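A protein record pairs a chain with a discrete description of its three-dimensional fold. The following entry can be read in just this way.
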Amino acid sequence: MSFVPRFTYDHLLVRHLGVIEGARAVIEVLPLPPDTTLRLRHDALQRSTRSSTQIEGNPLDEVAVRRAIARSDRTGSDAEQEVRNYWRALDRVEEFAEAQIPITEAFIKELHRIVIVRGRGRSN
């Protein structure tokens, strides 16, 4: 049985692929300004936080999630607290990843403690 592709290449498609590859090569060698990199990373973490907590039934929209994350105190609704806890846990995971620390049971327990904090530092 021989391979039968479901598509064909034409000159226009190949030219577009070449343009895309050229742009990708330029982007890979040009560093982003540090503030842009930080902003993109922060935005991605916010989207991840919203998506993950929304899967668990958190009703906050994108703007409310941004406000909850920006708030450093432990006031607000349970939904806001859930977002802040998840945000702190993601931050801790990144710290471990950057330090290349292996995942251990102690690390999982630490994340669990971060996620289940309710109110002013009390655990559920």
The chain has five helices and two strands. The longest helix spans residues 34-55. Helices lie at 11-29, 34-55, 62-70, 78-99, 105-115.
